[in-house]
């Protein structure tokens, strides 16, 4: 791997709520959390407080203004779908209103009784404003990585024959699950995404199969639209995505980051 | 028209930049602006300052977290495209990063040499958080109306045969033009959208031809995703959208709101 200058060594960042209901940011050190006055990507200062990790409720580890969600970004899935490898990242936008954090319920939309699909994915958390970022500069604009469940109302996408409803199908409230933490360094080429539904493994695919690497995604997407600190690129899923029944527990794990657990509520 | 309770009588709100570079909000009264400490939808208080209207540079009149942009929302366009009237609003999301204000340049994306299309539209500015809003309550959640140019890199939409790139084609920086003002009351049923390209009229369609009214849009979309104060729903365009050459000046006018003027920069 080429050397990529980083301001931080490997760190793990969380956003949390205390038992008193206060929301904070922090960096994990062992079984404690060093509190900061803002999210990691924002050059925060330590507040001086240190909290025991136990008893903190984890929130989505960042608050993206937008989630740029890729489709068809793994060779294995492209082969299975018999789709060509795209020339540019194919994406849609999940709005900030779709955000959910670790442990949160995924809410079935009132208007929709069809299949709700889990898609375990790697999430890139942007650290610096990105506009027309050169490929070699992309790594320096990535704050870190998180786990994404890119929840999708699968049957809506093609419900209207003339307009594929990607944004609606993936944009419902609680359909953008992020967490549990952000790690600032991840050897993603060596990591896999594992999704378990009610404990049974449903996805297990290597990130080395990515069509566009995180750095390529940041560079190419930043030619289209400005990415802001805290924005997330969901790298797309690979084979094994499937539907969740109401009440199901879904767990997406990337070794080195952790497990994002959510449940479906009908 | 049914009585719709409003906290304000007809008001005109702007966001502006002074000659000193300060950004502010205000309500127009004749040739002056009453300054407020926040945008109109946020229950702002007057700062006590009154500024002459002349010399203020108008900015986009709100700062939406997202622009929900409808497709196929006019009967005349549906007939022309030979598409059925949709059962639910068909939409994509333009990100906050696409925002441009009155007078701003529309920037041709570096990566794209194809047609850039103007689409003159009515914009609904959300005034209160909307989630599962009943149709009869929708009007009370609308702060007001603005003019939208929903700029589109037309040839990108179908460039990839397997994934229509609506978000990319409409999500480029500067492709979400809003302005010049927000009016809190508009008899939209009596108004038309007129688009002029280098002075020549290209669109002139009545808003009474809408498939989903503003109230229906707010109610139905709020079943899908939470709309926040300052968010904008772009109601979709009708017949007459077309492409702009680099250097062209495009003016979208809705009587009762005003004219949104932008220019293409290659």
From TrEMBL, chains A, B:
It comes from the Bacteria. One of its GO terms (molecular function) is acetylpyruvate hydrolase activity. Residues 66-264 form the Fumarylacetoacetase-like C-terminal domain. It holds the Pfam family Rv2993c-like_N. InterPro entries: Fumarylacetoacetase-like_C, Fumarylacetoacetase_C_sf, Rv2993c-like_N. Residues 13-61 form the Rv2993c-like N-terminal domain. Keywords: Hydrolase, Metal-binding. This is Fumarylacetoacetate hydrolase family protein. It comes from Cupriavidus basilensis. The lineage of its organism: Bacteria, Pseudomonadati, Pseudomonadota, Betaproteobacteria, Burkholderiales.
């Amino acid at each position: 791997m080429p050397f990529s200058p980083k301001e931080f060594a490997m760190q793990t960042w969380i956003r949390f709520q205390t038992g008193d209901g206060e929301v904070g940011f922090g960096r994990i050190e062992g079984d404690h959390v060093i509190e900061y006055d803002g999210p990691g990507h924002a050059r925060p200062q330590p507040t001086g407080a240190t909290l025991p990790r136990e008893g903190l409720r984890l929130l989505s580890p960042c608050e993206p203004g937008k989630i740029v969600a890729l489709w068809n970004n793994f060779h294995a899935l492209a082969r299975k779908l018999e789709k060509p490898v795209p020339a540019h990242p194919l994406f849609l936008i999940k709005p900030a209103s779709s955000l959910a954090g670790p442990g949160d319920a995924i809410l079935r939309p009132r208007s929709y009784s069809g299949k709700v699909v889990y898609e375990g994915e790697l999430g890139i958390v942007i650290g610096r404003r990105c506009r027309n970022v050169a490929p070699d500069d992309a790594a320096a604009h990535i704050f870190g990585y998180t786990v994404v469940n890119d929840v999708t109302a699968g049957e809506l996408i093609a419900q209207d024959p003339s307009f594929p409803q990607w944004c609606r199908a993936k944009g419902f409230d609680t359909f953008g699950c992020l967490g549990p933490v952000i790690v600032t360094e991840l050897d993603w080429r060596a990591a896999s995404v594992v999704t378990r539904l009610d404990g049974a493994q449903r996805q297990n695919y290597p990130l080395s199969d990515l069509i566009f690497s995180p750095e390529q995604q940041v560079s190419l997407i930043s030619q289209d639209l400005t990415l802001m600190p805290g924005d997330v690129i969901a790298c797309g899923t690979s084979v094994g995505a499937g539907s969740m029944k109401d009440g199901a527990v879904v767990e997406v794990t990337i070794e080195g980051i952790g497990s994002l657990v959510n449940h479906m509520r009908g």
